[in-house]
Amino acid sequence: MLARCLNPSSPAFVHYQKRGITVCERWRVFDAFLADMGTRPDGTSLDRIDNNGHYEPGNCRWATKREQGNNRTTNQVVEYRGQRYTIAELARATGVSKDVLRARLVRSKRWTVEDAVHSPALPATERRKPRA
Q: What's the Cα-to-Cα distance from 109 to each of 53, 64, 104, rounded to whole Å?
């Protein structure tokens, strides 16, 4: 957290600096950070709830890799039956392959979310062959 936001030698620094993300003054002292966040539960790491926000109380949590993966700025988010999902979350919720959903919703952009979820996948023999 500190290196990403405060150390110009860190490989991630440029990505955080250009977005203006920093660490609140209080958390620059480890004991204060620990008092606010508590010890890290097994299988988690620090995550910003609003990933455009700062490292500060109220915007951070201990999260699993899956939770963090669903909180990336690069995720495509869609609405399905009144709920917001990333493509990966929608795949888990509906049982439709993540790759099928991504192809239908992100690459082609011609499918509605309902159609992408409820249309059967074509058998491999009927799919278009990749271009050489």
A: 29, 30, 6
